[in-house]
Amino acid sequence: LRKHNITQSMSRKGNCYDNSVMENFFGIMKSEFLYLQEFDSIEHFKDELKKYMYYYNHLRIKSRLKRKSPVAYRVSAELAA
């Protein structure tokens, strides 16, 4: 991590809620993407992951975000501020 100038982030001791948002995302990604297809190579996986990330952020509607995608919700929140 140091070699690539990356700061390691850890949850506070004994607090499982610090990482709950990412744990939820990874659970969704596994069930909607990873477990539903097979990949021919690492490059194939990377290409498909990029497509899924675009879908997740730009197209996938979330009820918690007023039935908008994460990007659309952020844009509307910025315009309202």
Automatic annotation (TrEMBL):
Residues 1-78 form the Integrase catalytic domain. GO terms for biological process: DNA integration. It holds the Pfam family rve_2. Gene3D superfamilies: Ribonuclease H-like superfamily/Ribonuclease H. It comes from the Bacteria. InterPro entries: Integrase_cat-core (IPR001584), RNaseH-like_sf (IPR012337), RNaseH_sf (IPR036397), Transposase_IS3/IS150/IS904 (IPR050900). GO terms for molecular function: nucleic acid binding. PROSITE patterns: INTEGRASE (PS50994). This is IS3 family transposase. It comes from Rossellomorea aquimaris.
